[in-house]
Amino acid sequence: MANDKTTAPKSVRRPRAETPKGFRDYFGAEVTARKAMLDKIAEVYHRYGFDPLETSAVETVEALGKFLPDVDRPNEGVFGWQDEDADWLALRYDLTAPLARVAAQYRNDLPSPYRRFAMGPVWRNEKPGPGRFRQFYQCDADTVGSASVAADAEICAMLSDALEAVGIERGDYVIKVNNRKVLNGVMEMAGVLDPSDPERFAAERGVVLRAIDKIDRLGEEGVRALLGEGRKDESGDFTKGAGLSVAQQSVLMGFVQVNETAKKQLIRMSKSVPEEVASPLRVAAYDNNTHISAFWRSIETSKIWNRQVLSVLVDIVGHSKIGAEGVAELADIASLLEAQGYGPERILIDPSVVRGLGYYTGPVYEAELTFEILDEKGRKRSFGSVAGGGRYDDLVKRFTGQAVPATGVSIGVDRLLAALAAKGRLAGDTAGPVVVTVMDRDRMADYMGMVGELRSAGIRAEVYLGNPKNFGNQLKYADKRQSPIAIIQGGNEAEKGVVILKDLILGAKIAQSATLEEWKDQPAQVEVPRGDLVAAVRKMLGE
Amino acid sequence: MANDKTTAPKSVRRPRAETPKGFRDYFGAEVTARKAMLDKIAEVYHRYGFDPLETSAVETVEALGKFLPDVDRPNEGVFGWQDEDADWLALRYDLTAPLARVAAQYRNDLPSPYRRFAMGPVWRNEKPGPGRFRQFYQCDADTVGSASVAADAEICAMLSDALEAVGIERGDYVIKVNNRKVLNGVMEMAGVLDPSDPERFAAERGVVLRAIDKIDRLGEEGVRALLGEGRKDESGDFTKGAGLSVAQQSVLMGFVQVNETAKKQLIRMSKSVPEEVASPLRVAAYDNNTHISAFWRSIETSKIWNRQVLSVLVDIVGHSKIGAEGVAELADIASLLEAQGYGPERILIDPSVVRGLGYYTGPVYEAELTFEILDEKGRKRSFGSVAGGGRYDDLVKRFTGQAVPATGVSIGVDRLLAALAAKGRLAGDTAGPVVVTVMDRDRMADYMGMVGELRSAGIRAEVYLGNPKNFGNQLKYADKRQSPIAIIQGGNEAEKGVVILKDLILGAKIAQSATLEEWKDQPAQVEVPRGDLVAAVRKMLGE
User: Fold this and answer.
1) Residues 331 through 350 of chain B touching chain A, CB cutoff 8 Å
2) H or E element at residue A213
3) pTM for the whole thing?
């Protein structure tokens, strides 16, 4: 028999116990913190009349659309496989493509407009990297079937409520609203967009968009250089510019400087009016800095600010039809929001929002967290974007041929969780259970009785279920469980009808402290009658 | 241009808007009802010290184990595909295989024993059928690393609490506990299990297990026939039996009749003792019918019942070592549960639990709902099993070579939801939003203001965001949204400073009623000052 064992085939390799590359597992508090955050968001979305939708994780590649089954393995970017009946299937890569499919498939049953929210994992077949995973959560809300900008305004208001509901305080965030049509109008006025031939100047527009998007980093001079011949950076590398004339550059720079211009105009106006009018003008002007806390702005100054920005935009888009339409939509959004009391201390008309515009057809919005954190090099920077969205068409058209207008927002779940962690606002119960230790293996029923009483009283509690022989291991276990209290009852205690409560939190503090003096009056261990177990635990927990 | 349009290629086929075969989408109340149920279960599990675990949906095929990458497409039963770096990946098919991987991968970091629960979708690459889906929810709780039957007892108690927490009343369910070892002991005594050669008689044991499992349908005579030569059914078809001798059959039938025997013994005993002792004996005897409501059993009669069943089992397993071990474990479980007050009105020692035994190595348990529902043919039957589990070994051994004992339960999420629906206990907010209609497109800001006020007061509310031209469409929309109230304010009302509240629930009742007489004093429509909007809505909602 011994021989048999030693000659057992060595070739049977054990499987590796590894999360697949680019995937992760979430434990305990990580799960509860995310769940608590998403629950709060769902509560706000529900109040706004949005209904939850949970589609299958798997879609036909055909319905996903972006990835067509014209190659042998059409899984670029998605995780895909061929089903037995020859259909190509894939894991969803976002929550918008499934919404499009659902809106088309159930179009006769769903209310129209259809307000829905969705929360769940999506999958990307990309090279994993630090902080980049192949499965992650998305949290979307969309209104399908409404052409009214009231739908866009509503989503901005809802996003504002959701951020405050999860614990981002007013003043620590701002939602910036722009409109793709305004930017198109500016492009038209600058001569880089021809409404009768939309493909013309596409390359120039690409350079222009990228340049405008870099204003924070390059400053006005740098952006102007990129609009013209080009720009040499600090390292000496040269980036070719859009090659626009000075006149063209001026139109575009006027757009880049909208906020500055509005500010100057307000200050100028404040000099020629009575003080009671001038004061709110100056407040509106000086407070247009979204990187500082803005919670004290009033709805009055915010109206002034939004109106001024819109009037500057009217000038810049000039006679462009699409541009004027865009400004009018922004004006509508501003007044719809003001009617509900959402001023620029929460939601701000801000033409500087450029990112992601390619995808959108009308209003776009982005939530930025304005409080500062330290980056990996220890420098202060504002936390930045945690959510974004806008209006898009052709969502359902792919399936039905009928255009259906839609607008929606996506919250970056991991980003927002990181923000809550940075602010110390992460929810999720991290309290470990009370651990009832096992001093006498034969008296397990007694220990189970204790734990049963504690649980019935709503107290999280466990009995130690490992091998009880080594008591040290039991205390190590309690430590690993972040247990606040260990309950001990050996034979002597049982005879006396008492239990010992060990305050593990206080005990840890005492162990850390240099002077035991200060703790001497606070016993980390108390003996109480067995009948007082629940009451004594409650007291020690500070309940 | 017109020509261009008519000659556009017709071959561009639109994608089908279809959920892939065997998958489904969940809308609104379906999502919230399941979430509400799982939240309540999670609360109980948390109180018991179990921590949530959320593993990635994707595992390496190697880690999943059951399906090895030795063929070109190893996706029998799972959805699998080959990753770029040649690893085969697959969607998890249950929550136990990922737990095994995690327990091995993080064995140095996790507390031991490790109590964890997991809730989430799993995927099966099976032929879809009516009610059989390729993606469905599982809800598992397991304790890894404890060899103590206290861990099994704890999971049974937790399951009992969880069922009551979601709304299954005491008396409407029973959790039956058996032990794989007891059955092995009986097999040994019947001469169909040879401890020194476990493979011997495997075929006979298969026939025996299937026969015992059919006791409800075939009765004792039918089971006995299958243990012997075989059985001809009503249609004339013959099923070959295990071919056991009459003596062997008797041992096995003794096991099948354990409950009956215990009952008879209790009644006999009750005849020779004083009335105060006899009474609980008779109660325990006559109430061992898990198909009737049993909530009035006392812990005293339940102790008597469990003890009697165990004493019958002791006789049957005789000198079988493994059998005696099994009975002793059941006795331990019974007293651990009694110490926490869980008698057989909730958790019952019941040797009739056979299903799934092949997988398990020790205690097994199953939650059965005992209330009656009508089946598809209109016949009454008890609802049946909604959860099951037991002790299993070799979970982590595959990865590490080290045996780790584990025990756990899985709740059938869809089954339990169906049970709650049958009992009218389905949670989930199905209340539609108050709908503010749009009478005047230019006054959208006013309507948004109303909806903003309602939401701030915590009332679910929407403004109609579709094309407002056809007012009938707005009321149809409100109907589809199951809206309780429509708010109306046209130009006249705006001038008068009032709003109209239309009670849609009452309106629907009036529309259904044959006589309008009874409703004449209950106006389905009221006019209130604009300033009283929130208060009036609250009143109409009955809040």
Assistant:
1) 332, 335-336, 338-341
2) helix A202-213
3) 0.90
